[in-house]
Amino acid sequence: MTKQIAAFTVNGAEREAIIEPHMLLIDVLRDQFALTGTKYACGTGDCGACTVLLDGKPSLSCLILAVTAIGKSILTIEGLAEGPELHPLQQSFVDEGAIQCGFCTPGMILSAKSLLDENPDPSLDEIRHALAGNLCRCTGYVAIFNAVQAAAAAMKTDSTGTEARP
Amino acid sequence: MRDALDKNPGFDPRSGGTSAPSTTGAPPATSRTIEGEFSCVGKPLPRPDVAAKATGAAVYGADLVLPGMLTGRILTSPYAHAKILSIDTSKAKALAGVAAVITHEDVPKLRFTRSVMAEGLPPFAYEGENQDQFILSDKARYVGDWIAAVAAVDTYTAEKALDLIEVEYEQLPAVFDPEEALKPGSPIIHEGWPGNVAGVIDHPFSRGDLDKALADSDYVVEFRGRNSRQKQAHLEPDVAVARWEPDGRLTVWSPNQNAHLAKKTMAQRILGINEGDIRWITTTVGGGFGARLSFGVEPVAVLLAKITGKPVKVFVTREEDFSGWSSRTEQRQTIRMGVTKGGTITAIEQRILSDAGAYFSHSGTISAVNMQATLGVMRSPVVSGKATIVYTNNPTSSGMRGYGNPEGSFVLQQAIDMAAEKCGMDPLEFRLKNAKGTGEPSMWEPVTLTSCALETCIRLGAERIGWKEKWHGWGASTGAAGPSPGGRYRRGVGMSIMTHASGAGGFLLEHSSAIIKLDEDGSVQLAVSPCEMGQGILGALSQIAAEGMGLRYEDVHVITGDTDVTLFDIGSHASRSTYAIGNAVLDAARQVRATVLERAAGILETSPRALDIRGGSVFVKADPTQTVAVAEIARGAIYDYGLEGRHITATGKHQALTHCPNFQAGFSEIEVDTETGVIKVLKYVVAHDIGRAINPLTVESCLQGGAYQGLGYALTEDLIIDEHTGKVLTDSFATYKMLSALDMPEVEVILVEEPDPSGPYGAKGVGETGITNVAPSIANALYDACRIRIHSLPMTPEKVLAALAAAPQSPDYNGG
Ligand code: FES
Ligand code: FES
After folding, report:
1. What does the H/E/C string look like for chain A?
2. Where are the domains positioned within chain A?
3. What CATH number should be reported for the domain holding residue B349?
4. Is B791 a member of any domain?
5. In A, which residues are within 8 Å of B771 by CB distance?
6. Please, what are the averages of pLDDT over each run of 10 residues along chain B (816 residues)?
7. Residue B697 is part of which domain span?
8. Which ligand is nearest to the CA of B235?
9. By CB count within 10 A, which of B126, B306, B721, B770 is most buried?
């Protein structure tokens, strides 16, 4: 098996890892970069716990070979907050009671981020569809829907606020 | 007066203003919070554990990495019942990177049970759980039974080594049906249990002459039903890390729901060492739902760590988790109920056949709790309950959320509707007439109910679902009346009620303690040992602590999950933590408060009784301008340059022979597609007797999540086992159907707050309860819509179509 040193852009930083062709992205993220916020819950693409954003698109890192992510920009949950401030989605998940055990949370928040990036004002139905691939065993989803709506509202106010500033 | 104090900025010595903790978001519209009375209790405050979960910083078992740590994996049996003739581990051991390979020959010859709760059973309650297994088995008893284990440098090597282990099996005839297993000539699964009878439990509160009472009743109804093996399916697969320390002690990290009893079981039942030789640390827990009241892979990690002298992490895959040792116990039940013409229950009989699977685990206690809850919610002069527990070659069952209650309620609540129909009574009125209330015996009969808001729950829930307008009535054929005249789509409403314990006082050791230490800046460290598995217990306990001491919520730092630090606690189960540990915390908080007041009285030159504490500041009640900060008192207690220094601490405890039952009513409105058999839930309403919602947001979220699992239990979730091979066929999230974000119907939560005198600020339990009323209320709605009854869960379209085809279109038909 050929090992290679591969370069990734992870959470905005250039990172290198020693990878083999069979390695999955989730293992490289967790084992080599110690980014353990990305969760393994099924390994078969059925639950969404391992979701990361690859060039902005939600992707299941348990199904993706690490080699295919070389040179791409990877966002994991650890890269979402800028500095000590929580990202509006993280804040709304905290505030709305959308987190119980938290195992689905990183994947759920990243799927929601990708939705809000494309559609800043989603309807409830659009939120449901965007999160349909992310299972949550604890919450019954309702608080999660509320959190995404609250974050959308907060981000709108934010961006209006920023734009209005000279 | 209080209001004036709230607005007085002088009362917060540190922030100089906002003494009230910040609230985030409005409380749920349906909850009734008591404004002004409390500063922390009853507020939707953010939980202390969730920010770390939102950022990915929380450390779950799989995230833990220790220096020199090895990976452990387990070889499972491909056969449901087989003798192990030989195991050759030589090739596996020879593989580079393999540190140890173990089989049944290497495990302690002490039998144990996975249920760590067994250690908390009092000798007078039941005989306890059968101690019937070794860590690695000498005979395969189900597909997935543990045969051997490997520790290696990494997962890849460990799994390669598993492939190199050569096991020679001799297949034995297997039995998967509990009724078959009882027949003479069936394969015997455990030598010590002839006839595969794992146990028989008589309900301790059976009384009266059943035959006579039934013969004397105006009507007798009978309903048989069976629940599915619902899987806990916590999103975090099972995992454990173990390390033997240089001083000979053992440290275990795992998501077990019951750290102190897990430690005791490990010490006494598995290793034969002292409890003090083990330190048990609970990692962040990715969901429990009862699965983690049993040992998962901890014993294997402990053994591999011992043999290799290195820390070892053992984990399972999702497929192994589904095929493993934990699901709701399948129970086949019959309820017979006698009633008078006037609608008074005269007798209830319950018979249970409980399929333990290959090992006993929780199947005994779960049957006992089933009977307590099922036979304990309605008043009846004659009661009879009996459970037979059977070994089969199915995967070992265990306890899942509700712990017997969702199993029994599915059958009882349909029988209740049938009895109401016989009497021509509205099932709502029938329940109101026969359900127990304050002053009557609880589900554990020596205990008297000190509060019961069931009637309010029923009335509010009925209002929200529109019971009066929507329930069709018994006489009316669904073809002729109501909003869904006989077309393809038929609508119906149904209801269900339940009682559940807030703890296990009476039938299990019910003992919790809490430690509070007041640091020099006026903040406190609260050490408690519930398992925070997502239910929000750390937040609720912090709120109780802050309220009890008069401190701010943010001044409380909670420490949990380390048996070296926390005092004994009986674990997180039985919907007990807020109630029981909450009482222990409140006890400690009041002691700290008393010490602070005493010291403050010296400074303010008055008596402690003249003082109160709010927002971290002590003040004279008669003159609130006279204050001293709690921080000043705490600092003075530590930085005392004389001889009176003493760090202010307190330990509080809760111990009880009661369990403060809570009550709940659930209502479903459904639409049935009579061509496809699909049941669509339009709305579910749950009204819960919470006593007091310490954190209404958390309680609402808990009930939403319970409803979610209840909907899955009712309609889709089922561990399907191949009846020839015993293999679990639904071993992935693709085949085991849990509801997704697209499937979740509207759920309305109503919190009924009628404080119980024994709860912390009146609180009762809620954790497990949200699941229980869903399936029976849907089943009763199905009868309202289509006049059919389904006898087994889940209520799939196939079963609905079969029942529709079999149903004579008569209003009397009850599905036989
Ligand atoms: S872990 Fe990748 S989808 Fe479940
Ligand atoms: S919060 Fe536990 S799985 Fe979603």
Report:
1. CCCEEEEEEECCEEEEEEECCCCEHHHHHHHHCCCCCCCCCCCCCCCCCCEEEECCEEEECCCCEHHHHCCCEEECHHHCCCCCCCCHHHHHHHHCCCCCCCCCHHHHHHHHHHHHHHCCCCCHHHHHHHCCCCCCCCCCCHHHHHHHHHHHHHHHHHHHHHHHCC
2. 4-79, 88-160
3. 3.30.365.10
4. yes
5. none
6. 32 29 33 61 95 97 98 98 98 98 94 87 68 94 98 97 98 98 97 95 96 98 97 97 97 96 93 96 96 96 98 97 93 98 98 97 93 97 97 95 97 98 97 97 92 98 98 71 65 97 85 96 96 94 97 96 94 91 97 98 96 96 97 96 94 90 98 96 98 96 97 97 96 97 96 96 95 98 96 98 81 40
7. 1-28+435-500+659-816
8. 2
9. B770
